[in-house]
Specification:
The chain is mainly beta. It has strands at residues 4-7, 10-13, 18-24, 33-39, 46-51, 58-60, 68-73, 78-83, 92-99, 111-112, 116-121. It is built from no helices and 11 strands. Strands 2, 4, 5, 6, 9, 10 and 11 form a 7-stranded mixed beta sheet that branches. The protein has a 4-stranded antiparallel beta sheet with strand order 1-3-8-7, with no helix packed on it.
Length: 122
């Protein structure tokens, strides 16, 4: 079993920035696609971004493209989500997850972190 722990969430004003981190256990971390998902209050979990093991291929939801950047450091078993120009609609619990294949749906990911709250105020 892979363990994932997110950190870096918090309260920020609209237009501000946050950097989320996800630390993973296990020596197989580099073999996984890593993804970020979010769940706004009262809504379904939705795709945010994913990155392959080399870091050379990334994919983003249209709502965050140009504002968010996903990256990974395999030596540190860590994936990051840099969030800039934050909007109130970005408010959600953010989760990192792992998959053996590329995917943009939650059912394709097998291991999940506990989530970290991001709140963006107007």
């Amino acid at each position: 079993q892979v363990q994932l722990v997110e950190s870096g969430g918090g309260l920020v004003q609209a237009g501000g920035s946050l950097r989320l981190s996800c630390a993973a256990s296990g020596r197989t971390f580099s073999n996984y696609f890593m993804g970020w998902f979010r769940q706004p209050p009262g809504k379904e979990r939705e795709f945010v971004a994913t990155i392959n093991w080399s870091g050379g291929v990334t994919s983003y939801a249209g709502s965050v493209k140009g504002r968010f950047t996903i990256s990974r450091d395999n030596a540190k078993n860590t994936v990051y989500l840099q969030m800039n120009s934050l909007k109130p609609e970005d408010t959600a619990v953010y989760y990192c997850a792992t998959s053996l294949v590329y995917g943009t749906t939650a059912i394709q990911y097998n291991y999940w972190g506990q989530g970290t709250q991001v709140t963006v105020s107007s």
